[in-house]
Design a protein that fits this description.
The protein is mainly alpha-helical and 287 residues long. 76% of the residues lie in helices and 0% in strands.
Length: 287
């Protein structure tokens, strides 16, 4: 009962404090307003296209995750489920998208939730590993090759031994893990390009290498997010990691304002598509 009362209050408090901080910072830093005014329509169109590409990559993540559960979905259904889960993930508490997917897949396709949870944890492990490589890429270039070799070795070890965590999959499909890794890397690569476009629209001296490090830091906000879209948490991660990507605070704030604005536009379009195609009926829980 205590958690049910405190958690929503904490979430709303952090969200409101963050919004107030954005408003105050925006009002007291004319340089940020000037930077935002320079964002071209072409940049905004490019960002929207890239965000649509992220949706496709996420639908591939869903398909490859389900391969570990021995379940296949039509690509169109996976994309529609991804769109719906994206909206839920933003507005729901504590990144609710995976939970929504689990409930839908259980009711519609009778997916074993234990297998799905284990497969989802594999995705999160890959997500964290790739994000960590992104974050450290500016410091340890040659370590990336060693890390990749170690990752392959670990996957091979998992495939050829009996580890209790993975026994739920009965016969672990190494190809499915490779496919999931590729889909995860594609998702994170597109996100890195999004950040690069946003940052370059503000500061033309920023390199793609800086954007990769920046993306690695931003991605880790997923694991501690309490607010919609990790508002406040992602910005904090980016500010605390400035000694790695060397991007100044004004640019970070301006880029995140652009990013939030474009994401809201994307969610609006997704909402129109969902309701326009009557997808809400398809995903309505059955009695």
């Amino acid at each position: 009962m205590f958690r049910r009362v405190i958690r929503p209050i904490l979430t709303v408090s952090v969200l409101l404090a963050t919004i107030a901080g954005f408003i105050y910072y925006f009002a007291t830093h004319p340089a940020v307003r000037h930077q935002l005014a320079q964002t071209s329509p072409l940049t905004l169109a490019t960002l929207f296209f890239l965000y649509l590409s992220v949706l496709v990559a996420l639908s591939l993540v869903t398909l490859t995750t389900l391969r570990l559960c021995k379940i296949s979905l039509p690509p169109s259904e996976s994309l529609l489920l991804t769109m719906y889960a994206t909206v839920v993930n933003f507005f729901g508490p504590l990144q609710s998208g995976p939970a929504f997917r689990g409930v839908y897949l259980k009711r519609k396709h009778n997916v074993d939730l234990k297998k799905y949870a284990a497969a989802t944890l594999v995705f999160y492990a890959l997500y964290a590993a790739f994000s960590g490589l992104f974050l450290l890429s500016g410091l340890f270039h040659w370590w990336l090759l060693i890390a990749a070799i170690l990752a392959v070795a670990v996957l091979w070890y998992v495939r050829t031994t009996s580890i209790s965590f993975f026994t739920r999959f009965q016969a672990l499909d190494l190809n499915a893990i490779y496919a999931l890794a590729a889909a995860t890397l594609l998702q994170l690569a597109i996100v890195a390009v999004i950040y690069f476009v946003e940052l370059r629209s503000i500061d033309h001296t920023i390199s793609f290498g800086q954007a990769i490090i920046y993306a690695g830091a931003a991605n880790f906000a997923l694991f501690v997010s309490l607010t919609p879209g990790a508002i406040g948490f992602r910005e904090s991660f980016l500010l605390f990691s400035r000694h790695l990507h060397h991007i100044d605070a004004n640019t970070i704030v301006a880029a995140n304002i652009i990013d939030r604005a474009m994401y809201i536009v994307l969610l609006t379009v997704i909402g129109v598509l969902i309701f326009g195609t009557h997808a809400q009926r398809r995903f309505q829980p059955k009695g």
